[in-house]
Design brief:
By secondary structure, this protein is of the alpha+beta class. The chain has helices at about 1-30, 65, 75-90, 90-110, 160-225, 230-265, 275, 295-300, 305-325, 365-435, 440-475; strands spanning about 115-130, 135-155, 330-340, 350-360.
Amino acid sequence: MRRTANALLQKRTAGRSLALILCLFLAILSGCMVGPNFQRPQTLLPADWARPSAESRPVTPAEEELARWWTLFDDATLVSLVEKAVQSNLDLKQAEARIRQARAARGIVAAGIGPTVDATGAYQHSRAAGSVNGKSEGVITDQYQAGFDAGWELDIFGGVRRAIEAADADLQAALETRRDVLVTLTAEVARNFINLRAFQERIAISRQNLEAQKHSAALTRLRFQGGFVGGMDVANADAQVATTAAQIPLLEASARQTIYSLSVLLARDPAALVRELSPVAVIPLASPSIPLGIPADLLRRRPDIRRAEAEIHAATARIGVATADLFPRFTISGSVGLRASDFSSWFDWASRIWSFGPSASWNLFEMGRTRSNIEQQQALQDQSLITYQQTVLTALQEVENALIASAKEEEHRRVLREAVSANRKAVDLAKTLYTQGHTDFLNVLNAQRSLYASEDALIRSTGSVSTNLVALFKALGGGWIEGQE
């Protein structure tokens, strides 16, 4: 009897040892991961920018300077608007909500790496058919049960870890999306603000020219009454006054609409900033030094490029998730509890139950589906890589476009300043000659039209100089700093 008990005990011990050895072996194997490892895409970039002239040679930017580029315009109102937009813009808040969603999704995936434990409890009162002394008679029984069930699917081939890797990349992509929204937001606030100041200056110039033209029209009317000029001069003078006056309402509408756009960017009702922004002020101008760097800096600075890289990483990891389905799954499960047919003996030591052991499963007849899923994930990775390459090319184009636009607009503005100066002299000379009777009124009209056109063009060019700089800062990925969410 004792030998039988010892033999049974040895068998149990051997069985447990085998199970433990198997579990240790599986745990060692769990260090491997199937599927390709992510490698940062290699991109051939030019060594420098195609600058239009030596005068536009850029300087290497300081990180903080590029992160807060709008302060270079030295306009307190602009700085205030940008800071308020960063705090309240709805697109930015939506991007932040997507970050929280990505973090939660990562937590869900990461939970699959560890064991699960379920608490169970049940009471069952049942009647079963039976016989007593050859007679059919129902047997009524009670059963009480409580305990814990545990299971742990070992990540032998790294499917769960690849899923966590993909979730981490998705979270990084969400962070970069928020930064991209921030870059776009700051640029939009600055662009609208500069456009507003340009509209206000154009309105002021239109009113100045309108007053000058009204004065010329009044003078012409007096000369007509004196018989020095004909009615055609009066009609031309009045027509020019009306033409200039007709431009002002359109400019005022554009200015008000721009204020509305700024208000919405700050998540406020459209008319909220009308009183604050209605007073006329000059167009803000930044330093001519361009904080540019080299093309390779774009890979580090541009959030959309960083997001595209994270999306490649996620797609690569998902190939591993799909590949893991080709291999068997190993699970260690166990349970412990109490079971009794009488409540009074439910918690007796003799009522204990337990089980423990590994198991394996393998979907042998779904290989076609699994391999098709792998091919699908590989195609998605290829798409992500193409998107990345296109994003890099677009970024390079945007910087080059902004560089050439900034340089040429500076030349344009310089020539327009000369044109305004010459046209002012022409207006003064034409008025003098007309008053002295040495020229007709048509020359005065032409001189005044040319002056108004050149002054208006100069204001628009000044606004374009600043908005082109804004576009350049945006193309460089300025507007955020590392570690900022």
